[in-house]
Amino acid sequence: MRLADxxxxxxxxxxxxxxxxxxxxxxxxxxxxxxxxxxxxxxARRTMIRLFKDGTLPAPRPTSGSxxxxxxxxxxxxxxxxxxxxxxxxxxxxxxxxxxSQAASQxxxxxxxxxxxTILEMAASEADPSRRKAIFLSLLPLFQRVNGxxxxxxxxxxxxxxxxRHWRERGSPIDRNLDALGIPRDDLEPWxxxxxxxxxxxxxxxxxxxxxLAYAGNAAGRALADALPRERLRPLNDAFHRxxxxxxxxxxxxxxxxxxxxxxxxxFTDFGARPQWRDGAWSTGxxxxxxxxxxxxxxxxxxxxxxxxxxxxIAAIRTRPTYxxxxxxxxxxxxxxxxxxxxxxxxAWQRQWLGREASTADNLKAKYSGIALDVAWGLxxxxxxxxxxxxxxAVWTDLTSRYLHVRPHPELSWWARRGQLVNxxxxxxxxxxxxxxxADMRARAVELRGPSPCSDPGYYAWLSERLFRFGLxxxxxxxxxxFLGRPPGPQAILDDMGRR
Length: 500
Prior knowledge:
By secondary structure, this protein is mainly alpha-helical. The protein has helices spanning 3-31, 39-54, 79-82, 88-104, 116-125, 129-137, 140-147, 155-170, 173-181, 185-202, 213-216, 219-224, 233-243, 298-315, 330-341, 347-354, 360-386, 392-403, 420-423, 428-449, 459-468, 476-484, 491-497, and strands at 107-109, 112-114, 254-256, 268-270, 277-278, 281-282, 288-290. The protein is 57% helix and 4% strand. Strand 1 and strand 2 form a beta hairpin.
């Protein structure tokens, strides 16, 4: 048997065993009793029952095949037919994401094949406007895998009403995160709009084409490009975290950063073995980072720092096994990963770690050009799930022309470059709202500990004690408010944007 076939057989066998154990464990918890348990154990039992019921644990579901096995023929399908039935939404999302991943890993430009991140980095660095446009338009196959021809029968437009109904019937992931954080739902949209308005003023200038947007915000990246070749990303990442007291080797962080066929197009970090008390000491688990980098650059460095921020968060969890998981708010989780990683956009950090620096103005523009896009994506999904028959190209065109100074191109589905829009509707809001929380926590850390660190060997332990260690033991609301001393809000991010 070929190794690939053996892996598939083993994967199928283990998936079946996992599904059986999952059902058995879920049933056992549901039938268990609080009798004889103290209050803390009762709370732990209720937490496990809720996790199984809500599907927060990785419940098994049928799969039609990984992105590695997708073929062009499998991506020529009828979205409406695939979406029929009780599992239609899940089937459609799985197929869309497999086809998205396939396209994202083999984008053609000038006779060569590139992945999505490399194309985006090339577009942000290319000085020739005509070539920059051609690079950007090489993403068209990716856009088409998500939104077809843009018409009502496109995959995304078939998915959207189903996703909106799912939110109405089972609750919106955005609302769940707000509730977990104790943020009033009516505050969200005004906060996001205030950030986009601030960005509109910060980036004021002539209207630009969508293929010029990344270049316009990347002056800092271009100034630092020679200092950030691909081969320096891991060493810089490791050295910086080590200087904060978070030695990624000692913490058992695993990295999978090399390109390979069928690899997911989205960078992510997750648990392997979980932190636990073992032999009289805490283990750090096996936090694992997955991403693909064929190029260097400031943007890719920031993404790697962000994913490592997730990994050192996992390694710092110190709680009973029931609670050894991500916090109860994905938004809070994303914000925690930014507390240290955003230092890469500070001139002092660049001076120490790169030996050169970009201006404060260029760094702020580089940082907030990405954040403004995340905020726009968050609003995009919020408004489309409120009006699921709307044309997503029209909604995106309104947001980007109104706030990002982008010339309208309603014929282009250039919003469709993020895989989270397909396999996790609502997840983009975690980056948008997470930027607000991250700015708030960073400002508070400066108040409590002093200026932002380029190196501070005690910083990781300090953050771990106050923010990272709890898992599900404490609510995100309580962890955040205990640290801030107040409810969160957008003032810190607006003040930071105003430094220019």
